[in-house]
Amino acid sequence: MSRAGDSGFPTVGEVRGFQEAIELLYGDRDRARGIDGTFVWFVEEVGELARALKGDDPGNLIEEFADVYAWLSTLASLAGVDMAEAVGKYARGCPRCHQAPCACPPKRSQRTPEQGLT
Ligand SMILES: [Zn+2]
Fold this sequence. Notes:
By secondary structure, this protein is an all-alpha fold. The chain has a domain at about 10-90: MazG-like (Helix Hairpins, Orthogonal Bundle), CATH 1.10.287. It has helices at about 10-55, 60-80, 85. Helix 1 (about 10-55) crosses helix 2 (about 60-80). The longest helix has about 45 residues, at about 10-55. The chain starts with 11 loop residues before the first helix and ends in a 31-residue tail after the last helix. The chain binds zinc ion. The site of zinc ion (ZN) has 7 residues, from loops.
């Protein structure tokens, strides 16, 4: 049985540092826009990521992942959520089975056709 730990999971400081950097860059604007307007931007960025995943421009794909992560961090800040605390949920492996990789049976929606639908 393997467990997460020294598995390269981002440190609390790294995750918090990113959130603080985004707050420093855009915090004033984000607070003025508010959480509802910011959520709309976030969803728009998710749509751009969806298009990038279907495209063939690796540089654009990286950019869209960065944008989604930045907008998610902004939303967390506006909602008073510490992303480092939030992602800590996964720091010690799967939150349900505590294994890394997860050893939980796949949910119906995650099963491949080969695994059947029952
Ligand atoms: Zn699991």
